[in-house]
Amino acid sequence: MAIGNLPLVDALKTKMRWNQARQSVLSANVANADTPRYRAVDLKQPSLGGAGGTLAPAPVAIRVATTEAGHIQGRTIGSSFRTDGQKPFETTPNGNAVNLEEEMLKAADNQIDFQMVTSLYQRSIGIIKTAIGKKA
Fold this sequence. Notes:
- The chain is mainly alpha-helical.
- It is built from 2 helices and 4 strands, in the order H-E-E-E-E-H.
- Strands 1-4 form a two-stranded antiparallel sheet. Strands 2-3 form a two-stranded antiparallel ribbon.
- The two termini are 19 Å apart.
């Protein structure tokens, strides 16, 4: 069994992929802060299933809203993580429900979480290498 296939390492990799996908979703929310009728979305935390099981993928495609013919379609953000139905804190008169302060807090929280998981991943690999006799 390879080190990368251990349940703990697999769970940490799933969490890091979730953090990366969430950063893309949060960035799309900020990019559409002025788009009429755009509603912010977020991703649900992955269920790691106790012994390191991974989330059952549920394909989600998040598109950038275009309201006029001259708008660029942008890139579709595909993710295997589920979206979280958010209740908007406030909605502007044009129907936009993106709160920039809330999105910035989520982005900072996501970055801190990613750094913590990355640190755990590095330490886990180091402990495993030490246990098998290789220097970390």
